[in-house]
Amino acid sequence: MAIHSLNNTKFNDVLCLVDSPEFCKLKVYAPEGKYGLKSSVLVHPENYDLATKEPFFKIQVAQRKKSPDLGCILPLPCITSIPWTASDLPQWFLEHFELLDADTKKKFVTTFAQTRKNIFWVIFNIDTSSGKSWFGLKFQYKKSKVNKTFPLKLESFTEWNIEACSIKLFDKSSLIPRGGAFCDLQDKHVLLVGCGSVGGYIADQLASCGLGNLTLVDSDTLSIENIYRHYLPIEYLHQYKTIGLQFRITTKYPWVNVIPADGCLLELRNDSIINRYDLIIIAIGSPTKERIFHDYCIKNEVETAIINTWTEGYGVGGHAVLDIPEQKGCLRCAYVDNENLCRGLVSNLNFLKPNQDLTRNLSGCGNAFLPYSNLSAIQTASITTDLALKFLQGKVKDSSKVSWKGSDLDALNENLELTDRYSSFSKSLLVTPLLNPECDICNE
Hints:
One of its GO terms (biological process) is cyclic threonylcarbamoyladenosine biosynthetic process. With 444 residues, this protein is of the alpha/beta class.
């Protein structure tokens, strides 16, 4: 609206939480900082149940020390003129106040305008060809310590400073897609097992894409050795990774519910628990445990799809396998030995040959680790999240696999041998069918 051109406020955004464009009284919280949400004006209906409907907003409001100002919503039927300067605002307001329907006008006068305050906020909305447009006016009495009723006569406005401001709705239906995320993921629930270097980034990426519910399972705490390739910063040293991720993610993304749980993969062998979720992602890098869990799922006819994901060392690549029940293709398809065509112990997707010492030890016994960078962890997390989203949105309906291929330079410098698949692989980042015709489970 043209009134936005008058916006010369000293605060940043006015974030308004509303569930209806109709008249209602508002609580308006002034900014109390220069950056972040502390620098924004926060607005919500007077009787809004923040605790159950918008806990994220409730936390932000609770941090404000000052008492809220009074505001209201006025739905305009039309706009008959445009204020070009601040001196035009009183006449513009009174002119458009007269356009309100009788019921709205009565509510404004009796429940809002008679209250004595030194600051009032009026937030307008109007239907336009592209949807509702929102804008607002802040009325502040020039004698800041004096409370007065709202001015309703032209001559009374000389005692008030009026500021025009743009309004941004704090609304998932607009903010989620505007940020490149997906509203249709809000009712999905994913179980993520493993919150290490790969799992931590998967958790953040899922939330950034609009996932509504995420349960995290891990028993580890953040150690000093983790900090260069883990999502969590050093401030979370010795904290459980699940709890650290819960705090970081829920303070970054407003509409995600994160549940931390202490445990491990094999403790989840309970089909009544597993079947609660739309998808399970396993990012623990332990093939033996993953195969044991897969055997349990087959035996008990688990209905939930599962993604297993892992990163190989030395930057050569990473993989994700999507196993959808009752579809051809399962985790065991990725473990068919290419030489004898029998079920093997090493994934046929790997780029590094088995039976090599892939770990390094920099500090003596007990500190062996698989060397790969933060970039490798993020790349594996990205292909995993992408595969998860495609499944949750119905874009991938068959069991599938996806890999990314990196440089072999570091591996060759360590005199490590690469598989034939590494040499011939040309489908990096492409989702392809998982089914292996020699899998004894899928071809019974």
